[in-house]
Amino acid sequence: MGTPKYAIVQEWIKSEINKGSYKNGEKMLSENELMEKFNFSRQTIRLAISNLENQGYLEKIKGSGTYVRIKGGSSSKETRNIGVIITYLDEYIFPEIIKGIENVLSENNYNITLGITYNKVEKETSILNSLINKKVDGIIVEGTKSAIPNPNKEIYAQFKKNIPCVFINGNYPDLDIPLCSMNDVEGGHMAANYLIERGHKKIGAVFKSDDIPGHRRYEGFMRAMHKHSIIIDEKNILWYTTEDLEYLFKGDADSILLKRFEGCTAIVCYNDQMALNVIRFLERNNIKPFEDVSIIGFDNSTLSKFLDLTSIDHMKYDLGALAAEALIKQIKTGEKTGARIKTEIIERASVKDIRRN
User: Fold this and answer.
1) Tens digit of pLDDT for each residue in 191-202?
2) What pLDDT digit, counting tens, does each position of 284-303 carry?
3) Which fold is adopted by the domain 5-74?
4) For residue 128, which of 178, 83, 195, 73 has the smallest C-alpha distance?
5) 323 CB neighbour count, 10 Å cutoff
6) What is the DSSP letter of 41?
7) Which residue has the higher pLDDT, 141 or 23?
8) Residue 148 in 3-state DSSP?
9) Which of 32, 48, 111, 282 is most deeply buried (CB count within 10 A of its CB)?
């Protein structure tokens, strides 16, 4: 007698798993797809899948499909712990992001192991190695200096083979890891367009060069300027890194900054914290913030409310919650999904309408 039909299907699936065509946690072909591939009946396909479930190769999830679940693999030994890596933990946007993550994870009976990198590559390396040793079920990461080459990408590349990952805010674009973030391009466009509609044409900007959100906000800013056919003077665009803040806005570089922003009636800032630095710089040099120079920030933080600063909103809690939901979905089904959250501008007193001047 020949090999039973169900056994043919079983051996093909096992072979595909063993050679890496389908990795642990990934979705297997549906019953209909397997029926079409082998020209076998549904009963035969179901018997093959049932046998492979019993052997520890597959798992059927009602309403979702069939997934590779290899006994002894990372997904079969749950720790109920999730690693969360962020750059900072202070009174800015991060407490709300973490709150969103924590609430969703706790509702699903997961605990958090929190690591803070302070945007330092070597600190990120240490945290990642620690999480590998702890054998977490997944990680949510705000990547360190995501816009520049980072040796930790090799660790993430190994991580994602066995452990579900989701990035927040920014990511390393060449890694197949989903991202949950604000729509930073839209935000940059919104900020510039808001100023242009109020008569500003000579607009400066300060963007962070070592993180992806800075590049995306710059992209949106430039799109708006081009859309309105406004000539851009590149000297009015100031790029900075994390380390630059140690000296750039402390006073010693004021003469350079004055030249960079000479003639500008408005400045778009990478975030609200940078907007505060710009406000202090202007005040030191007898330039009235909001009156002589309009300012827009990003993140709609508590700081922006205190300063009465117009700012692009950052849905902090929602971002954390969406990232946690995306990670749980990846853990349970292997499906990798991210999200871009729409934003809006929160108007306050920091932008002057100069159309009548």
Assistant:
1) 999 999 999 999
2) 999 999 999 999 999 999 99
3) Arc Repressor Mutant, subunit A (1.10.10)
4) 83
5) 29
6) -
7) 141
8) coil
9) 48
- Residue 191 in tokens: 């900020």
Structure-derived torsion over alpha carbons of residues 6, 11, 16, 18, reported in degrees to the nearest 10: 140
Domain ranges of the chain: 5-74, 77-182+316-341, 184-314
Q: Which amino acid is at 164?
A: P
Indicate the DSSP class of residue 30: P
Which residue do the tokens 């960079």 mark?
A: 260
Total-model pTM: 0.77
> What class does CATH assign to 184-314?
alpha beta
Strand partners, 312: 298, 345
Q: To which residue do tokens 């202090």 refer? A: 280
String of DSSP letters for 272-323: HHHHHHHHHHHHHTT--BTTTBEEEEEE--HHHHHHT-EEEE--HHHHHHHH
CA 258 to chain centre: 34
| Phi (first) and psi of residue 289, to 5 degrees | -60, 145
Q: By the 8 A CB rule, do 112 and 84 touch? A: yes
| Strand pairing report for 111-116 and 81-86 | parallel
Asked whether 94 and 314 are in contact (CB, 8 A), the reply is no
Q: Out of 141-145, 150-154, 290-294, which region has the weakest mean confidence (pLDDT)?
A: 150-154
- Say yes or no: do domains 5-74 and 77-182+316-341 share a fold: no
Angle at 72 between CA 66 and CA 77, to 5 degrees: 85
Pairing of strands 310-313, 345-346: antiparallel
Q: What is the dihedral of CA 5, 10, 16, 17, to 10 degrees?
A: 170
Q: Which residues pair with 138 in a beta bridge?
A: 82
Helix (H, G, I), strand (E, B) or coil at 169: coil
> For tokens 């909001």, what's the residue?
290
HSE (side-chain half, CA atoms, 13 Å) at 92? 13
Mean pLDDT of all residues belonging to the chain = 90
CATH 3.40.50.2300 describes domain 77-182+316-341: yes
| Confidence bin at 75 (pLDDT 50/70/90) | very low
